[in-house]
Amino acid sequence: MDAALQEIKNRLAQLKEENPNMRARNAAEQLAVTEADLIACQMGDGAIRLDSKMEEILSSIEPLGEVMALTRNEACVHERKGVYEGPKFFSNGPMNMGLFVNEDIDLRLFMSHWVHVFALTEKIKSGDRNSLQFFDKSGAAIHKIYLTNKSDETAYNNLVAKFTAEDQISSLVLEEYAVKKPGRSDDDVDWVDFRNSWANLKDTHDFFPMLRKFGVDRQQGFRKVGAEFAYEVETNAARYAIEQARDKECEIMVFTGNRGCIQIHTGTVKKLVDHGEWFNVLDPKFNLHLNETHIAECWVSRKPTVDGIVTAVEVFDQFGEIITTLFGKRKPGEPELPLWQEIVAQLPKKKAKSVA
């Protein structure tokens, strides 16, 4: 192991001695390194670097049987158990995309961001915990796949053996992302044309290309399009919507992601638990952990499609990044659930700030 990784390993060992239950993301933050560096320094001691053959690796997950998929951002962790069936990979213009679409594992993958991957064995109270962990070029975690007690460990070991990289000693070569450019100023946008484009949407997938065409940020568009299509609600709206979905037994869709992966749960939610700053869904196949202190704004958006209006609750952090998005359960060709529309209509609208 090279000197840089050895130094991180020594500092990590000291940190774990002081805080044995600290999560990897928090440990990386404390040590001022990336989460990928934190895994890399454990090569030879539980971590194995794999070749960056992402599509091949993802196409080899199904034989593992039921696993737990984890995708997160700074404020939200989305965990879903299931089998990685039917992977599809394709190009969409300059973007390389991947898809898993089944009842349990529902993922949208932006493959150009998938750069580093490790197999990791961790010692926990119940024994060894095995996972595959994927990182972007900056060392940030994109996606993790954990074995469950229903997984096939032999299939996992075979996968790791097949894709083990030759280099198990060198530091990672990481690259920071460019700072996000600000959108156009309000005065530079033809808002009448923008609103007409929104009104004539035929599919929710046309929404992002429309924003890009006008050079408009998502929240900027929400503020300017008018209340028929978007309006702000209180920052507890996600909690309220999930609680109402539980109480009314409304099937919902919960989207959580980062630059490399969006993970989707479709179905009911049952067990809701508060723990410190986190609002949690703790169901047998689906867990969600939402840190409400990170929520800066919540919006209801209404997008026209050939199947009628599709209504979303969109949750943002202070940097304008999406934390999580909620929909009613639907499929192409089907209208939105009236029960979901009722729930959203009851969300508390953002109170206007009083002027002193």
Write the layout of secondary structure elements.
Elements: H1 3-18, H2 24-31, H3 35-40, E1 47-49, H4 54-58, E2 65-72, E3 76-82, E4 88-92, E5 95-101, E6 106-110, E7 116-124, E8 127-135, E9 141-151, H5 153-163, H6 191-199, H7 207-214, H8 218-225, E10 230-233, H9 237-248, E11 252-257, E12 261-267, E13 272-275, E14 278-282, E15 286-291, E16 297-303, E17 310-316, E18 322-328, H10 338-345
Antiparallel strand pairs: 1-7, 2-3, 2-9, 3-15, 4-5, 5-6, 6-12, 7-8, 8-9, 10-16, 11-12, 11-18, 13-14, 14-15, 16-17, 17-18
Q: How would you portray this structure in words?
A:
By secondary structure, this protein is α+β, with helices and mostly antiparallel strands. It has two domains: 3-85 and 130-163, HemS/ChuS/ChuX like domains (Heme iron utilization protein-like fold); 186-345, Heme iron utilization protein-like fold, CATH 3.40.1570.10. The protein contains ten helices and 18 strands. The chain has helices spanning 3-18, 24-31, 35-40, 54-58, 153-163, 191-199, 207-214, 218-225, 237-248, 338-345, and strands spanning 47-49, 65-72, 76-82, 88-92, 95-101, 106-110, 116-124, 127-135, 141-151, 230-233, 252-257, 261-267, 272-275, 278-282, 286-291, 297-303, 310-316, 322-328. The chain has a nine-stranded antiparallel beta sheet. α9 (237-248) crosses α10. The termini are far apart. 35% of the residues are buried. The mean pLDDT is 93.
